[in-house]
Specification:
It is a single chain. The protein has 491 residues and is of the alpha+beta class. The chain contains 13 helices and 23 strands. It has 2 domains: 226 residues, 3-Layer(bba) Sandwich (FAD/NAD(P)-binding domain); 140 residues, D-Amino Acid Oxidase, Chain A, domain 2 (2-Layer Sandwich). The strands form 6 sheets. Strands 4, 5, 13, 15, 16, 17, 18 and 19 form an 8-stranded mixed sheet that branches. A hairpin with a 2-residue loop joins strand 4 and strand 5. Helix 1 runs parallel beside helix 8, helix 2 packs across helix 8 and helix 10 crosses helix 11. The longest helix has 24 residues.
């Protein structure tokens, strides 16, 4: 806390974003429309090329934006998909390019307007950083650790007026002194390991309630060079678990540079091994041999990386009766999802749109330049946005009896209904597309209860190809030529 905020070297109307992950970068883009200066403060060294950084250990595993996230990216960065494709990302059309063995059998493959890209987390972040770097009033301060918040002395209407930071030294530098950076708005997007709760406690605020749902899932992942096939019949191959009896799953995700990222997953403490014989044996244990056969002769490009922090966790900042002005928290710093359901980056992008909407509403109230009230309203609005994906992710995790957390009374009924949806979707294109629109956060789950879909669910179901059928359904064959044509046209 400081007694005289004006004692700081103050820059006019500056916003500070803590964290240069997807949530922080998308938030910085939104803030760039409202502040003459946006400063992104990041603990890691930000690489000049699309390479791994230690602050995102989960980047070793499969990441994809859902279609909702891709459309938000296009909304905020005109030509977003074009830039990703030009950098090597692979066009990915759902469900045509997805060879998917679901618990109901092989899912059908058909054309749609549900298009995203497959690429590495490193490439995605790099492309967004490049777009932000083109804006003169947005800059990144890397190798800088945020130590805490600076607040005004006036209580109870205490305001956050900046952050305390310390630059992390390079090998040749001595540790630098603590610095104070002033800001009119501070956004914490520092991820799963956010210290926002501690910062609030240091400023005299209560700790938020934390909801946790843990299915004790884990990953093991490895990069491979894609074998020189004549055709590409899929962009992503996914083998879904069949809980509770069969908790194992796997995915092959196409990446830039003609590579595959292979992630094996297990729930209920059935963690995939990180040694090569164990990794391959786990792949062979999946209910289809296709994944194991695809990688058995592929050339490994990396070690096998393990990761077991896959629990869902929601810090309920929205419930706190007191909240400091000019401070908002978003992305994984608020809510982390089991990444098996691929929601995390898209939810972070969606949070940036929520912030944009609240900033516009502040202006509409003729309060332009006055940010009081914004922060608490944002946290409540964000909580409303998080409720549906939280129920979707945790609901699936509760299929395992060993899962820990508060189990809603409706869980068993929702499982039965979704099982029916999946069985019908395997053979019914309309139901399949409706399910995918819900999965990609384009429509609410109630869509699956509407009469046109419910009527199809009541019909006798032919079902999909059975689990033990080794032959997947035919799909869109992506030759090298058609792949190039798709890339040039964009999603």
């Amino acid at each position: 806390m400081i007694d005289d905020p004006s004692s700081l070297t103050r820059h006019h109307a500056r916003a500070i974003v803590v964290g240069a992950g997807i949530g922080g970068l998308f938030a910085a883009r939104v803030l760039a429309d409202h502040f003459p200066e946006v400063l992104v403060v990041e603990r890691d060294t930000l690489p000049a090329t699309p390479t791994f950084r230690p602050g995102v250990p989960q980047a070793h595993h499969v990441h994809n934006l859902l279609v909702r996230g891709m459309r938000i990216g296009e909304q905020l960065f005109d030509g977003f998909a074009r830039d990703l494709l030009a950098a090597g990302a692979v066009r990915f059309e759902w469900p045509a390019d997805f060879l998917w063995l679901s618990p109901a059998g092989w899912a059908g493959r058909s054309r749609s307007d549900l298009v995203t890209v497959a690429c590495s987390r490193e490439l995605l972040e790099w492309v967004v950083r490049q777009r932000l770097a083109a804006r003169a009033h947005v800059r990144c301060m890397d190798r800088t650790e945020v130590l805490g918040l600076l607040t005004s002395a006036a209580a109870p209407d205490r305001r956050v007026v900046g952050v305390r930071v310390r630059r992390r030294p390079s090998r040749s530098d001595a540790l630098q002194r603590e610095e104070h950076l002033a800001a009119d708005l501070v956004v914490d997007a520092s991820g799963r390991d956010s210290r926002a709760s501690r910062w609030l406690a240091d400023a005299g605020y209560p700790q938020p309630r934390v909801e946790t749902v843990n299915s004790f899932a884990g990953y093991a992942s490895r990069l491979y060079a894609r074998p020189p096939l004549l055709t590409r019949e899929w962009v992503v191959l996914g083998v879904q678990s069949r809980p509770p009896a069969h908790p194992r799953a796997g995915v092959i995700n196409s990446l830039e540079g003609d590579r595959w990222l292979v992630t094996l997953a297990g729930a209920a403490r059935d963690y995939p091994p990180t040694d090569e014989p164990g990794f391959l044996a786990f792949a062979r244990s999946l209910p289809t041999p296709l994944l194991a056969e695809a990688i058995q002769d592929a050339r490994p490009l990396s070690p096998i990386f393990g990761y077991q922090r896959l629990e869902n966790r929601w810090r309920r900042f929205d419930e706190l009766a007191a909240w400091p002005e000019r401070f908002v928290v978003l992305g994984d710093a608020v809510c982390t999802f089991n990444p098996l359901y691929a929601q995390g980056m898209t939810i972070s992008a969606q949070a940036a749109l929520t912030l944009q909407r609240e900033l516009h509403a502040q202006r509409a109230r003729r309060l332009d330049g006055d940010l009081d009230g914004l922060a608490a309203r944002f946290q409540r609005a964000l909580a409303r946005e998080l409720r549906t994906p939280w129920l979707m992710a945790t609901g699936e995790d509760f299929r395992y009896p060993a899962t820990e957390g508060r189990r809603p009374l409706s869980t068993r009924l929702s499982h039965a209904y979704l099982d029916r949806v999946m069985r019908v979707a395997a053979a019914d294109t309309a139901v399949h597309h409706a399910f995918l629109e819900v999965m990609h956060l384009l429509r609410p789950p109630m869509t699956l209860l509407r009469p046109p879909i419910a009527a199809r669910l009541l019909r006798p179901s032919r079902g999909g190809q059975p689990i033990d059928n080794p032959t997947p359904p035919p799909g869109h064959v992506r030759t090298e030529a058609t792949g190039m044509a798709a890339a040039s046209s964009g999603p």
